[in-house]
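#help-structures
NK: newbie question, is this the right format to request a structure? protein is Amino acid transporter
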Amino acid sequence: MLFWRVKPLDKILETAEKKALKRQLGPIQLTLLGIGAVIGTGIFVLTAEAGQKAGPGMMIAFVIAAIVCGLAALAYSEIASMIPVSGSAYTYSYGVFGELVAWIVGWALGLEYGIGAATVCVGWSGYMNGLLTANGYAIPTWLQTGYFAGGTFNLLAFLSAFAVTILLVIGTSKSAKVNSVLVAIKIIALTVFVFLAVPVAADHKEHFTPFLPGGWGSPMGGVGVLGAAASIFFAYVGFDAVSTAAEETKNPQRNIPIGLIGSLIVCTIFYLLVGYGAVGSVGAQPMLGPNGMPIDPGTPAMAAACALPQNAQALVCSHEPLAHVMRLLGHNRVGDWIGIAAVLALPSVILMMMFGQTRIFFTMSRDGLLPDKLSSVHPKFHTPHVITIITGVVVAFCAALLPVGKLADTSNSGTLLAFAMVSAGVLVLRKSQPNRPRPFRTPLAWIVCPLAVLGCLLLFVNLSMTAKIVFACWAVIGLVIYALYGSKRSHLANGTSAS
């Protein structure tokens, strides 16, 4: 049953062979591509989330998440170089494990990209609200956060998702030059933060005690170092942009690993410096519950704790942590500029994630696993407008109602499944098709890939209970849809597949 309806890799590659892409990307370009794709909401927003879960120990969480991503990245690169076509892990799974697993992975990617986009929308609204408030233009408090985050309706998060949906429908694309500028803005903002916060942190060793207030983790998941690592994993998602550029890379055997590992190392160093600066300069000890453990972020208990006057300035309660640190250190103008950097740079991440989600479901629709209507193209704008609008509505309301941490955890659940399946897929292809050309080969694959799967499983177990429940419900809904529709309408099953 596992290898049921496997789509031959040669069939998948037919599409790619029709249009060969020029190999022109070198190691530096790939590294910059990875840095631009990775740095976003994770570091700008989830620093407070990680601080609440692990306190100063969040720096260890950054390293753990980076190691798991690095292992998965090496596995991802081998399959991406073998199957350099669209569809991401869904397409790879279709060619390795068959239709049922491909459906499960594609359905899970809906959580990665769709809920991930909602996460960035909430992160963006936190900085925008902070910027407006700091300059005397605050909108009503009940419109600043969602119903499940202590407010009522996150208006700016809703509007940002709505605006990006319109852009995707009319086909407005990102300029490569604009993207480069946005990457530069993010790097400059983080560099300024490190330059100002780290020296202060060095003078406040007391802020690092206790170092592990939540321990390594809870049996229920969600808090502690491992819980923080499961959340902060979101800060590294995007590195696969490097591996999916395999077809356009010069000497991919050498340059793909340089781009992947190089971008992860640079981002990890930035993250550790930012974490050290934030924790050491103003402190990041978590709010503790009656049991002496950190309160789970994004819960009514956390909202109540942050509403107390004595906690008003706590880093772990901030929706714009990096700007908040700068203001606490007396650099109000710098705080505003960091807020502006986040406001300018994060919308491109929203667009990338919503684009990815719509294209995954678009590909599944073309394979017959979802209704054909979802892959219909607008006659004027030439975009998959139906699935884009549906995605936009779901993302907008999730962003308007839910807290950023729960959204990030839920998004990570889909990502971790996809990465685990890709890592396992490398080993299956090593056995089933050992002679197929591999422009890039995962080093020590029989060690790296199992460790990647185990790492993904470890982080999944330590996600919040809410995220695991949502993932389970999402999976059940997906299996029901597949049983009632996809399994019967599949083009591969009916011999009508065009690719």
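mod (FA): yep, format's fine, and the tokens are attached above. The chain has one domain: 23-142+176-287+294-343+408-494.
NK: thank you!
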